[in-house]
Amino acid sequence: xxxxxxxxxxxxxxxxxxxxxxxxxxxxxxxxxxxxxxxxxxxxxxxxxxxxxxxxxxxxxxxxxxxxxxxxxxxxxxxxxxxxxxxxxxxxxxxxxxxxxxxxxxxxxxxxxxxxxxxxxxxxxxxxxxxxxxxxxxxxxxxxxxxxxxxxxxxxxxxxxxxxxxxxxxxxxxxxxxxxxxxxxxxxxxxx
Length: 192
Ligand SMILES: CCCCCCCCCCCCCCCC(=O)SCCNC(=O)CCNC(=O)[C@H](O)C(C)(C)COP(=O)(O)OP(=O)(O)OC[C@H]1O[C@@H](n2cnc3c(N)ncnc32)[C@H](O)[C@@H]1OP(=O)(O)O
Known about the structure:
Layout: E1 50-53, E2 58-64, H1 78-97, E3 101-110, E4 119-130, E5 133-142, E6 149-159, H2 163-168, H3 171-183
Antiparallel strand pairs: 1-2, 2-4, 3-6, 4-5, 5-6
Subcellular location: Cell projection, Ruffle membrane; Cytoplasm; Membrane
Organism: Prauserella oleivorans
Family: Belongs to the THEM4/THEM5 thioesterase family.
């Protein structure tokens, strides 16, 4: 039984309908930004999470715990596990709804220890939408899609405009990011 607070998603949410141009089932999502700590290939000690669109509005992600991710000897750091879920949940919102969104709230339940060398299989689903707010949750299972649940998480993501990133982030890096995505035929400025 979950120990998390109930009322999730809140009563005023509507079902989340994937964007018509959301990637189809079976699509491997790859990195969304090479410097992203969650998925970027250029971050040596990053999490290198890979995600795929499964079916029925589910996104499955895999995270293998490395030696750079430890808290206690031989065990994953809880904050890094929360990071893995932030990435998996954010990828679910961004890819299925195709809305730029940021994490406003992230809750995690750590159910069992996650050893170095193990792979978390994270399955995330959209729970509902209310105006700019998207509710999304996930379970992470140890070493197999049907392995024991190790971590549960849920997040509230808030849709933002591109100006959120250009105003608060590194404008030059944002510009390069836009150019790389556009050159690859990927979307950059999508409004919901
Ligand atoms: C485009 C195509 C994509 C393609 C594919 C992309 C893939 C992409 C993969 C990304 C994967 C990376 C995933 C990592 C994602 C991060 O880690 S993002 C980094 C961490 N997050 C941040 O830095 C966010 C910092 N916070 C903020 O900037 C602002 O607080 C926010 C969240 C934008 C909200 O500010 P705001 O715009 O002024 O809006 P505000 O009115 O305060 O809040 C809006 C609503 O949310 C509610 N709310 C806000 N915060 C909270 C809270 N903490 N608790 C409860 N409710 C809250 C408000 O009450 C309000 O509700 P309503 O009044 O509408 O009912």
